[in-house]
Amino acid sequence: xxxxxxxxxxxxxxxxxxxxxxxxxxxxxxxxxxxxxxxxxxxxxxxxxxxxxxxxxxxxxxxxxxxxxxxxxxxxxxxxxxxxxxxxxxxxxxxxxxxxxxxxxxxxxxxxxxxxxxxxxxxxxxxxxxxxxxxxxxxxxxxxxxxxxxxxxxxxxxxxxxxxxxxxxxxxxxxxxxxxxxxxxxxxxxxxxxxxxxxxxxxxxxxx
Length: 208
Hints:
Elements: E1 2-7, H1 10-21, E2 37-39, E3 45-50, H2 55-60, E4 66-70, H3 71-77, E5 82-86, E6 92-99, E7 110-114, H4 117-126, E8 131-135, H5 142-145, E9 151-156, H6 160-164, E10 167-176, E11 178-182, H7 184-189, H8 191-204
């Protein structure tokens, strides 16, 4: 039995479809069900749905053997897990964005609004820029528009929200996509099962 943590939402549904296509389908699964755990009758796999930001926690603590998590979450929280594969789903980027007419003025700390404080602090530390973090949980784009921050550090997919609020990307920090992650003990004690799953997935993933 291998236990798989999937992120709730569209990404999780895409990942399940991918896993099902390589032999890990589950008869109990239904996208319309409110159940959180699904087991296949052959006893080979258990799926459970969790909040995307919690996938790495379930994997790190061993409740799940493997899971699928965005690279943004891995970079922000740095869980003690193994990253096994890039599933090339949910592609986007972590970026610095600001009002179109913004210019960095050295001397004063840069006010950075973000949901990813660790990522922002690490990025700006590497370039030697003093910052003041403003932690927000939603509508990050409002911060520079209303003048409470100079820039934002956030995930950008299409850039539509930025453009509609007269913002633009000034710098890309990293590329983001869904990653297959594994509990360290599970990698040791369920090595053959974990590797079989990884290799089957790699067999259907296209190179960029």
